[in-house]
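ok new one. same drill as before - structure tokens go in, u give me an amino acid for every spot. 278 of them this time. try not to just spam alanines like last time pls lmao
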């Protein structure tokens, strides 16, 4: 049998009797709670966002300054690179200048040595020319007349039994003696006095000076000379130097003050002519 429905009387809001049942939330309270939670979350997000924004604000400022700092740094780097390049260029230029100066000094030293060598050669040639001129002047002073002397000496001939070997032996014994203009031995000679003394050993009296010695005896072509022939340098009758051919392309003479009495190769100082008196 069904029980009759008993109307439920709402409880007063002042009722203080606890119910063992958990109160139900209404849709409105649920929405409110959700709204509160959502608001809290949004508030938290807002605070976090604000904090993040605040934190992000500083890098923005730095980011704005970085281009300026980077540009300055780039300019400084560029200036430093330019300075380094310029310094390197200066060092290279200086090195090239130093190398050029060293090369110039080396060349100048070589040129100076060559000039000194040439000057010494010219001085030697001048001295020899001066000595030859002095000898020529001495010869000219000693003879009263070339014509008279030539007539006298042209008839000189070797005595019977004259020996070329004796002449050559005497000449070779004088090798190493000094050359002195006008000297006639026994340890110093000039060219003509040595030749005169050599032939005197076999009884041949020759004139004292070179010019006259070139006029005695028989003229011999240089291609046919033999040991003992007198060689002369300069014109016949005006020779400025004499020596004696000793064979094998060599001759012996009182050369000059720097050499003295020596044996030399005829190829190095070819004679002008030759005469034979033995």
């Amino acid at each position: 049998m069904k029980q009759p429905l008993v109307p439920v009387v709402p409880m007063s809001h002042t009722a203080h009797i606890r119910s063992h049942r958990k109160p139900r939330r209404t849709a409105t309270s649920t929405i409110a709670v959700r709204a509160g939670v959502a608001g809290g979350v949004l508030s938290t997000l807002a605070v976090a966002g604000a904090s993040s924004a605040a934190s992000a604000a500083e890098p923005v400022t730095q980011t704005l300054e970085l281009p300026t700092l980077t540009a300055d740094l780039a300019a400084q780097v560029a200036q430093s690179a330019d300075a380094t390049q310029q310094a390197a260029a200066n060092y290279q230029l200086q090195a090239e200048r130093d190398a050029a100066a060293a090369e110039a000094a080396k060349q100048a030293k070589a040129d100076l040595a060559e000039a000194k060598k040439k000057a010494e050669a010219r001085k030697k040639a001048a001295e020899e020319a001066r000595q030859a001129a002095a000898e020529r002047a001495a010869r000219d002073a000693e003879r009263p007349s070339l014509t008279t002397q030539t007539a006298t000496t042209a008839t000189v001939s070797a005595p019977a039994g004259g020996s070329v070997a004796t002449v050559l032996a005497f000449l070779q014994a004088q090798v190493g003696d000094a050359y002195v203009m006008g000297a006639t031995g026994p340890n110093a000679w000039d060219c003509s006095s040595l030749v005169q003394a050599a032939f005197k050993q076999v009884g041949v009296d020759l004139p004292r000076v070179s010019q006259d010695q070139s006029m005695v005896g028989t003229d011999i072509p240089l291609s046919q000379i033999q040991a003992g022939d007198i060689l002369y340098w300069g014109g016949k009758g005006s020779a400025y130097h004499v020596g004696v051919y000793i064979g094998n392309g060599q001759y012996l003479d009182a050369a000059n003050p720097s050499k003295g009495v020596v044996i030399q190769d005829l190829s190095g100082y070819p004679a002008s002519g030759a005469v034979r008196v033995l």
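Helices lie at 27-142, 146-153, 164-173, 191-200, 210-213. and btw The beta strands are 178-179, 188-189, 218-220, 230-233, 241-247, 250-254, 261-265, 273-276.
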